[in-house]
Structure formats: C-alpha cells, structure tokens
C-alpha cells in the first residue's frame, strides 16, 4: 500500500490531506505537525481570536474528521531531518516516519524580534503566540506595533476596538506601497489615523528596552521615544525549511519546486503553501506566497498531481488575499505589483467606504484589484482575472451596477 | 443525495466558493453567500467539495441525505 506523509499540519498540509482522499487516494496517509494543538486556522489569530478571551481556535480538521477519512495524525513532533534515499522523516521525540511519497508543508514562522526577549514583547504566528498577546492586550494600556504589514495593521485595528492606545511604526513612509501602490497605501494610513492609531512611518527602531518602571521604551531613528505596555514585533515570516538542509533538495528561502509543485522534478516529493518556492510556466523570478488561499489552491493541485502522475496540472494561481483592518474588508486579487496604471471605481457616495482600485498593464488588461467593502466588485475582478480582460470592461461593469448604488 | 448548506452568520464574503464553483455559489450585494443549487450532481462533487474546503470561515457544509 502506498504511504503518503505530509509534514506540516496547518492549512496547506490539512487541505492536501483532505484533497488526497477526495481524489481517491486510499493508501496510508500521515499528517505530521510540530505543534501539539489539533490543526487550527491562523487568520482569526490577529482578529476575532485576539479580540475575545472566550474565542476558541478555529479548527481546520477535528480528530473525528481525521479518523473519518483515515488520516493518521502525528502532532507535537517537529520534523528535524529528511532522508530522501531512505524515504524517511526524522521527528523530535518520535520514531521516524517512512513514506513512498511526501508533501512538504512546514509553512513559515514569525521572524524573531531583533531585540532581547523580554516580558511584554511579542510576535504573532501560532495560537500560543496569540494567547500570550491576548493576555497582555486585555490588560489595556498602550500597544506599540513594529511593522505595518497585514499582521501589524490587523492587530492595530483589533487593539483599537479593545480600547488600547496604539502606535504603529514602520520604516517605510507608505508601508503597503510596494504591494498595492502609493495611492491605496495612503488610504490605508488614513484609515489607521481615522481610527485613532498613531502612525510613525518612515522610521526605524533604534532600541527597545525596559525602563525602571517596567514599561517598554522604543527609541525611534528620529530620536522620539515611545513608552508602551506591550510591543508586537510584526516584521514578516521565514520559511521553515531548515529541516531539509541535509536532504539534498534545493532550498533557497523555501524549497524549490517546478510548475507542478514537484520538488526537484521527482514524482514523489511535492511542496505546498508558505514553504514552497516555484516557477510559473513563463520565465521570470520564482516566487513564494504566504497567503491562505494560495495554500488551499496549491493543496488541490498537489493532491491531483500525486494521484494522477499521468496528467500533471501546472499550478497557475490568480493571487487572492484579504485583510480586515478596522471596519474595512480589504481584498486583493491578482498581481497589483505588476501594474502600469490604475483606475478607481468609487461607490462611497452610495455606501460608506466602498471602492475598488483596478490595476492594469500597458495594454489596459486587468492585472489586479484592491476591493474595499464591495463583494460584487470582488467577484467581478476575480472572474475577470481568470482570462485577459480589459480594465475598461470591468470598470463599466462596476459603474453601471445599480445594486451597488442602491445598497 | 448530497446537499450543500451555508451558515449565513459565518459567511464573510470572501468569494472563494464562487471562484471554485460558480454554478453553485454566488454572493449577494451585501456579501452573503447565495446557494444557486443545493443538490450536488455526482459529477460536480469534487468541485463543490473543493469550494466547501476553500471557505476561510467554514461557512459551507456538505450533507449526505
């Protein structure tokens, strides 16, 4: 009987396991996770979970659901080494697991704080991180956040709703500009200001120290000091690929895959989610994506390719990521980074803060969209991105959408 | 027979289900999932299951009746 092992029990690993069973795989299936927790979902950890001390982790796969489809769960044992020749995974404090086929889904971890660890200083990635941060946030006071990426910005919104004072620091003057452009980046800054977040942008952190009174003091590069009760260091993530170092697989900020998500063009080893770096069919730089929907979509392709080696599917996703900040549901589709120009469709006259920024290339083909509080625009954009579509067509479709104007 | 059900209280309008299986799902103007057909045809089962598991807030379930 064929044995498939999946290393990593977050969304990429769990969804691959489920998709393998859906695709008809009937062999032995083992899902290995480093954390002792039953597989849980991460997006709520910066939002609903943090806001409410009664909130339980959102489960991705219950023990019962795993048993129902015969998924063998090995939780609480980190993979430390891969022996490709022996087809064996070495685990911390557990017997090695043997496999015929392997899925690498070890994800990423929060980049560590460069300052000495001290009480009150947090990162946020795991449910344990979230519990620790939640405890401090519910004591109130002043939260300083270093890094205005999605995690930092979402926690800023959550903390303001909890009534904390919030200061958001980022070395970039317009933090999201590289991803979604200057104009939308500025709208996000304005959103924070309007919701009472103090922004300190274009500034680095020189030092983070504990004062005699126990408070945490950040000294910014312009000399300003910020005294906080709690600090969140949200400066990105690092792929969990160290366990592959001696495996012979090619690792370079993620494990390298081909367009089918196969590692090293072997038919037996695949990678999925935050840890996977792959090439599109078209030439260009490889990429690694740390988004939820990417992991889910890649899981479906990997499960298909593992079970249908004769009809491999390339993985060619249309990007999609969402972030909830204050009262904005912000959804980003496609690849706004690659755009030459933008078109704004604004419905804010009819509906508070409802707009879509459409990104297009030199030929006016839609390449991306940022949508705020506007579900129909999100669907129109995601559909249009599946095939080359003129930005004018999408704009006209949204502009004449009477329902949007009415609601 | 398999039916697909939605938890409207949970739905947050991410639209992953619409992208995965647009013959079965749409969103209302308020961003709530609309089930276009509740009975899942056997040949569509894998696609609808993929749509169900692509929901970020587990708002969709398949029920075998």
Helix content of chain A: 25-40%
Biggest beta sheet attributes of chain A: 5 strands, parallel
| SS summary, helix count of chain B | 2
**What is the largest interface, and how many residues per chain?**
A-B, 27 and 22 residues
Give the amount of beta strand of chain A, in percent. 25-35%
Instruction: Give the uncertain stretches of chain A in residue-range form.
Output: none
Entry summary:
The complex is a heterodimer of chains A (407) and B (65). By secondary structure, chain A is of the alpha/beta class.
Give me the secondary-structure topology.
The complex is a heterodimer of chains A (407) and B (65).
Chain A: E1 3-7, H1 11-22, E2 28-33, H2 48-51, H3 63-68, E3 71-75, E4 79-83, E5 88-91, E6 94-98, E7 101-104, E8 108-110, E9 121-122, H4 127-137, E10 142-146, H5 150-161, E11 165-170, H6 177-180, H7 182-194, E12 197-201, E13 205-210, E14 216-220, E15 225-228, E16 230-233, E17 237-239, E18 255-257, E19 269-271, E20 276-278, H8 292-307, E21 320-325, E22 328-334, E23 341-346, E24 355-360, E25 366-372, H9 375-384, H10 391-399, H11 402-406
Parallel strand pairs in A: 1-2, 1-7, 2-3, 7-19, 9-16, 10-11, 10-16, 11-12, 18-20
Antiparallel strand pairs in A: 4-5, 5-6, 8-17, 13-14, 14-15, 21-22, 22-25, 23-24, 24-25
Chain B: E1 2-6, H1 16-20, E2 25-27, E3 33-35, E4 39-40, H2 45-53, E5 60-64
Antiparallel strand pairs in B: 1-4, 1-5, 2-3
């Amino acid at each position: 009987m064929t044995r498939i092992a999946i290393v990593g029990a977050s969304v990429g690993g769990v969804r691959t396991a489920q998709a393998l069973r859906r695709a008809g795989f009937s062999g032995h299936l083992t899902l290995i996770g480093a954390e002792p927790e039953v597989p849980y979902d991460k997006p709520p950890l910066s939002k609903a979970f943090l806001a409410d001390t009664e909130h339980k982790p959102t489960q991705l796969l219950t023990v019962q659901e795993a048993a129902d489809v015969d998924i063998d769960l090995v939780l609480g044992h980190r993979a430390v080494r891969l022996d490709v020749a022996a087809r064996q995974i070495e685990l911390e404090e557990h017997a090695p697991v043997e496999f015929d086929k392997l899925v690498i889904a070890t994800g990423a971890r929060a980049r560590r704080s460069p300052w000495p660890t001290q009480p009150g200083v947090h990162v946020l990635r795991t449910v344990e991180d979230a519990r620790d941060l939640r405890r401090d946030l519910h004591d109130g006071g002043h939260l300083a956040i270093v890094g205005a990426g999605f995690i930092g910005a979402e926690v800023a919104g959550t903390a303001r709703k909890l009534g904390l004072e919030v200061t958001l620091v980022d070395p970039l003057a317009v933090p999201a500009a590289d991803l979604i452009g200057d104009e939308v980046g500025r709208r996000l800054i304005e959103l924070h200001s309007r919701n009472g977040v103090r922004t300190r942008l274009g500034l680095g952190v020189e030092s983070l120290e504990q004062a005699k009174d126990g408070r945490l003091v950040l000294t910014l590069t312009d000399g300003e000091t910020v005294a906080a009760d709690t600090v969140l260091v949200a400066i990105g993530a690092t792929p969990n690929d160290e366990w592959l170092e001696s495996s012979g697989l090619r690792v370079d900020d993620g494990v390298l895959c081909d367009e089918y998500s196969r590692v090293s063009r072997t038919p037996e080893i695949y990678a999925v989610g935050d840890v996977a770096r792959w090439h599109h069919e078209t030439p260009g730089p490889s990429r690694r994506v740390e988004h939820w929907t990417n992991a889910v979509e890649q899981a479906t392709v990997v499960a298909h390719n593992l079970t249908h080696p004769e009809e491999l599917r390339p993985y060619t996703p249309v990007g999609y990521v969402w972030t909830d900040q204050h009262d904005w549901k912000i959804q980003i589709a496609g690849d706004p980074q690659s755009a030459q120009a933008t078109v704004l469709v604004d419905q804010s006259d009819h509906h508070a803060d409802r707009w879509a920024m459409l990104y297009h290339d030199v030929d006016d083909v839609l390449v991306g969209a940022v949508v705020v509080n506007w579900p129909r625009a999100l669907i129109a954009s995601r559909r249009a991105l599946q095939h080359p579509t003129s930005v004018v067509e999408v704009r006209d479709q949204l502009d004449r959408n009477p329902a949007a104007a009415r609601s | 027979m398999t039916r697909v059900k939605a938890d409207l209280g949970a739905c947050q309008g991410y639209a992953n289900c619409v992208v995965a299986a647009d013959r079965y799902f749409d969103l209302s103007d308020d961003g709530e999932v609309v089930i276009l057909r509740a009975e899942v045809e056997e040949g569509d089962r894998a696609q609808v299951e993929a749509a169900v598991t692509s929901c970020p807030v587990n708002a969709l379930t398949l029920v075998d009746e």
